[in-house]
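User: My instructor asked us to take a sequence, write out its structure as tokens, and then describe one feature of it. I'm not sure where to start. Here is the sequence I was given:
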Amino acid sequence: MKLNIGCITEAGLSKKNRTGYWRYFFPIVDKEKCNGCGICELFCPDSCIQIKDKKCVVNGYYCKGCGICARECPRAALTMQPGGEEAE
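Assistant: Let's start with the prediction itself. The structure tokens for your sequence are:
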């Protein structure tokens, strides 16, 4: 199969490039509200959210602060705050 120019066939260096350092907002998780449903993990465009021990955990090294996770959370367990944590 011939690939057109511009097709990405593998992740390359994306795991080495920690892109979260330039964000302004960061999602803060309210552990009391979070039930680990995984909606935030599903919608995160950078795959920087994981569900661990039935709670949402955000990887600050890659989170760009877009806020999609907070908008999609059905329990409002994520809120976008200026600054935020560096990394987990």
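For the description part of your assignment, you could build on this observation: The domain at 20-82 is CATH 3.30.70.20 (Alpha-Beta Plaits). Try explaining in your own words what that tells you about the chain.
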